[in-house]
Amino acid sequence: MKRNVLILLIVWMASWSVSFAQDKVEREVRVKSDEVPDRAKSWLKDAFEKVKRPKWFLEYSQAGKAFEAKFWWEKHYHSVKFDSLGKLIDVEIEIAKEEMPSSSWAKITSYFESEFEEYSVMKIQRQLVGEESDVEDFFDEEETEGITLRYEIEFHGKKDSWQIWEALFDEGGEFISLVRVQIRPVDNLIF
């Protein structure tokens, strides 16, 4: 009997954790440059030599802690994420839908139309993932070897009710993943 209860408890806990994995909960706190790992600051300086004073944030999420540098460069907002030790995770560049290949955008809108009653795109980001040296070469020398390109799209979508969602697509517009974005309630009422 105890064994059956234990098995049921394990199954329940596993299903509970999977349901939470489908939601994205993040909180960002502005931090000073001297609180950021030197490895992250050094990589950012090498890859983006002309960026003088990025804004640094400490991000808390279900994945753990991460540092993020945000700045304007070459007519786009950039967000560069590092793990807690300063190792590069990814670079995200905010773009307009007109900057995407039309075939990729067509596949993405087809996905939205098949999965949601209604939707409204809030933000599109080109996401670059790869080894630190490959990503640095992409920005220094426009080399694409070793780079994985994805599109991260934040949008309002209606299934049963309106929610904020974040979808990830590959370079060709093929669906990869979808998470619901959980908005933290604010501590103060804003009038």
Automatic annotation (TrEMBL):
Keywords: Signal. Residues 1-21 form the signal peptide. This is Uncharacterized protein. It comes from Algoriphagus confluentis.
